Amino acid sequence: MLEFLENVEQAIFAGGHPEAGGTGCWKNKLNDFKDEVNTKLEHFKFNSDLVYDFEFSIEDINEQLIHSINSFFRISGKDFKPAKVLVRDVFTIKKDALGSGDTLKSQLCSVSHTWFIDEEEYADLKPEMAAMKFRIFDDFINEFPLHQTIDIVGTLSVNEYMRYRPVKRLEENQPNFYRRLFYF
């Protein structure tokens, strides 16, 4: 993105990190800027490949795995990205808009928990993981599938929001929703 913006003649500046960029143009040249960008993008082929480091089922994910992955990828910053994880076949139980409406939180469980129940029983499903997406538009929340099976890619993190960490101990095979937080 940044490289593209640097080659737009109508742009006064281009800055930011390699995957995104900011730019500016003169107010009286805004239409020329738009025309140039649209012309340059007319035959551009966007890469729709999704890159991830690991693939897990929701049943595989626990606090120990999250800490292991994060300790291996503990160095982050420019050119050091956190591990991206693909989780297949998760079922969306619930979705909520948080904050000022620009954050999506979805509660998820394994699709296998839905195999022998009717749609009316979806409300009784217990979440095994929460997924959050930040800085989104309203239509993303509206279009995010509910009561459907999806695959999700993001980073894994243990929920320790504001130093809160659940202390409730659960049975070994019982899902622990609060200790699995997935950002995508």
UniProtKB/TrEMBL annotation:
It comes from the Bacteria. This is Uncharacterized protein.
